[in-house]
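FORM 12-B: Structure-to-Sequence Request
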C-alpha cells in the first residue's frame, strides 16, 4: 500500500440519513438545558435533572438519582426504570435507545455508547445499536459499554472494563476486553 492510498476518506462522511429523533430546535433546547442543569458545577438536586429528562421525553421511574455532570445526548431515547442511579459524569451517547431496568447502578464516569463507525468503509459510515442493562446490574466506575450490548440481570462490570459483547446474568466481568471472572450468587 502506498502512503498516498486513502484508507478512510472522511470528507465523504455523511450522517444525513441519521434520524436524530427530534427536531433541531428541540435538540438545541436540550443543549441549553443540559448546559445549565446537567453539566453545571452547581450541585443541583437530582429531582431537577429527572424533571428535565421527563420534559425532554425520557421515561423515568421512581427513585431515580442523576448526579452532577451526567451527559446524555438524546434524552428522548432514554428509559430508566425505578431506583436507577447515574453517578457523577456518566456519559450516555444515545444515538439509539438506552434502556436501564430497575435497581441498576451506573457508577462515575461510565460511558454507554450506542454509536460507532464502520472502519472498513472508506466513508466511515455511522453504526448505531441499542444498549440494555437488565435488573440489578452494576456498571462500576469508568466502564465502557459498546453499541448493541446487553448487560444481564445482576451482572457486575468491574471498574475500567471495556464491554463490547453482551454479558450473561449473574456474572462478574473485568478487563479490556472484558472477560468473565466468575459467576455470582443470586
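FORM 12-B RESPONSE
SEQUENCE OUT:
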Amino acid at each position: 500500500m502506498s502512503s498516498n492510498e486513502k484508507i478512510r476518506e472522511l470528507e465523504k462522511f455523511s450522517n444525513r440519513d441519521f434520524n436524530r429523533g427530534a427536531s433541531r430546535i428541540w435538540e438545541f433546547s436540550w443543549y441549553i438545558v443540559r448546559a445549565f442543569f446537567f453539566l453545571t458545577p452547581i450541585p443541583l438536586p437530582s429531582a431537577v435533572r429527572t424533571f428535565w429528562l421527563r420534559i425532554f421525553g425520557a421515561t423515568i421511574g421512581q427513585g431515580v438519582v442523576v448526579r452532577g455532570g451526567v451527559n446524555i445526548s438524546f434524552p428522548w431515547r432514554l428509559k430508566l426504570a425505578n431506583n436507577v442511579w447515574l453517578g457523577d459524569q456518566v456519559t450516555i451517547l444515545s444515538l439509539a435507545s438506552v434502556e436501564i431496568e430497575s435497581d441498576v447502578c451506573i457508577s462515575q464516569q461510565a460511558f454507554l455508547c450506542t454509536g460507532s463507525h464502520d472502519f472498513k468503509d472508506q466513508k466511515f459510515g455511522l453504526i448505531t445499536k441499542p444498549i440494555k442493562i437488565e435488573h440489578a446490574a452494576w456498571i462500576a466506575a469508568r466502564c465502557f459499554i459498546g453499541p448493541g450490548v446487553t448487560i444481564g440481570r445482576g451482572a457486575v462490570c468491574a471498574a475500567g472494563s471495556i464491554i463490547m459483547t453482551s454479558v450473561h446474568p449473574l456474572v462478574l466481568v473485568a478487563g479490556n476486553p472484558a472477560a468473565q471472572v466468575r459467576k455470582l450468587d443470586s
